[in-house]
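Quick one before lunch.
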Amino acid sequence: MSVLSKVFLNEPRGEMVTFKKGFSIRLVILFTALTVVLTASVILVWEQVLKPPYYHWIERNYPGAANAQNRDRIEQRSEHFFISMTVDVIVVSILLAIVDRKQKRLVEANQRLAHNEKVATLGRVAAQVAHEVRNPLTGLLLYSEHLKGKIDGKLPNGDAVLIDKIIDTINNLTATTEQILNFARPVTLAPRKVDLNEVARDVIQLLRTEIAAHSVEAKLELADAPVVGMLDEPSIRATTLNLVLNAVQTMPAGGHLTISTSASDDKLLLAIRDTGSGMTPDQVKRIFEPFATTKSRGLGLGMPYAQKIIQEHGGQIIVESQPKKGTEVRIELPVTERS
Ligand SMILES: Nc1ncnc2c1ncn2[C@@H]1O[C@H](COP(=O)(O)OP(=O)(O)O)[C@@H](O)[C@H]1O
Ligand SMILES: [Mg+2]
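Model of the adenosine-5'-diphosphate complex:
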């Protein structure tokens, strides 16, 4: 199996199949209520329906004072029988409920495994296609630029634009294949001192055209002192860019974007807040799944890439969102060495 496929087969941590241990308090309450109802019903049926004719039958078959002891014994035996029946019914129903619960969890786990396997296959195919396409694309770009240089000024304006469009399209395709390959490649971090304040400022600067095009108001709430950690600069920059781009893209009709940074004794924090479309809890759950996108031209690799990079740094990425209100994505990184 190639390195690419192995990377895709590594499930993101959030998606791992886990079995919950311990008691569910709701289930305990349900069982208690069920036991009380069941016991009450059995006693009621016994006392009101079955006992009178049964005792009447005993009176008829064992009449008189001489049979008093026999009658007592038979009555006692039947009551014991009823009590043990009640206990049996309760125990069996609890066991059935436990088996049913385990069965449901097993079905869920199987569904998740099948889904992860599908995503992994999709990833393998995408990575292989991206790999095959990358070299021809580089060739195409070179030929197109060469052609552009040769015919520069010799074509009417309208036709010259076509060559630029070809070059733009090739560049877009190259960026897409790079994104797929970046995600598929194993990460090798080269940590050095990086200031998150600087990263935040640079990303806002880099995306200024997109920010202006979306009429987004960007604000930096940076810590006074540099927020420095031993980080792999290219991947942290790429991750922050992906997250800020997502925030901008979710506010097509304008809104507020805030990037904040802070540092505590053991943690560095970078948070990106937007007032965009937000997400439902279900969407948030699937946000780190590769290829899960709601955008017509999206790839769905920005968030899983971000998660992979932050986890490789020993940090975590937390997403909080409310539909129609906005989203906050927080990156928490461990402090490995203070400046
Ligand atoms: N800030 C955000 N606000 C709302 N939705 C978001 C935000 N960030 C990510 N998403 C959702 O998560 C999906 C996956 O994001 P991502 O992995 O970056 O892929 P892409 O941007 O290519 O769609 C997006 O399509 C979008 O639905
Ligand atoms: Mg994205």
